Amino acid sequence: MSEFIELDSRYSTTRRVRKIAPEVVEAELKAAHKPEDQFKTILFQPEGEGRTGEGGLRTKGYFKKSSKEKPLITVITVVFNGEKHLEETILSVINQTYDNVEYIIIDGSSTDRTLDIIEKYEHAIDYWVSEQDNGIYDAMNKSCRLSHGNALSFLNSGDRYIGDVLSAIKSIPCLLPCKVQEADGRVWRKLATSPKQGLPTTHQAIIFQNQKILYNTAYKISADYDFFLRHHGDFSLTKTDEAYVLYDNSGFSTQNKLIRNIEILVIIARYFGALRVVKFLMIKANKKLRLLQRWHTST
After folding, report:
1. What is the CATH number of domain 18-252?
2. Computed from CA positions of residues 108, 109, 115, 117, in that sequence, does the dihedral angle turn out positive or negative?
3. Averaged over 30-44, what is the pLDDT?
4. Which of 66, 88, 141, 257 is a Cys-bridge partner for 72, taking CB atoms 3.0 to 4.6 Å apart?
5. By the 8 A CB rule, do 72 and 100 touch?
6. How many beta carbons lie within 10 A of that of residue 64, not counting itself?
């Protein structure tokens, strides 16, 4: 007899769950803990400042488990006052066909309708919590400690899966096809680049192997780049024409490009040396020169 049950066949997050005592899950996590892990995985977020809500399948005694045949993919959404696009993000996750998906939402104590939207779908969310945090990477670190999957996908409010993305994954870790949506509605395909020039693709299009690593919160905008470089593995590109990640390019990083670029230079120097910083600046300068030449020609 299988230990897994199906709560609702309509959603990726409710087709493969276990009704099991939290103490049993804690014992499993303790047995799987390794000395090199940066933290111990937990079931629930300890109550922090400004807690306004908590819920999801875990609070009702339902938990997920990874297996060799069916790896558990943890999808994480960090949000603050995201009522405009959060529902689209949630639906893109729970409507996937892959049936071993764990969904965690970390809300920074939103004051708009964000909590109403989360509660509307909490029957298909493994765990959500709403409380104050110290920035986006602090919230992401909370989600890392809560993640039980052996694969991690960070899909923030406004980003979404288009098509059957998770079923297209053949290996972990990997890069997913990605398209970028600008604030004016334009959409363009993001091509993977060298990791020595910054993130090879958007953070949302990277599937990480869960190596129990936390974000370095000393970086305010580019900690995702540092996070990527500290993960070892072959990040091969998942090939699919029908499915991709749609990245919303109107967020915090885009609004603070100067700080982002300074942090990227610091990270490049740390991992690859000063010569690589010079090459990075030359590549950026050449790109701007080509854009100016195109503009001059068109006018």
Report:
1. 3.90.550.10
2. negative
3. 96
4. 66
5. yes
6. 22
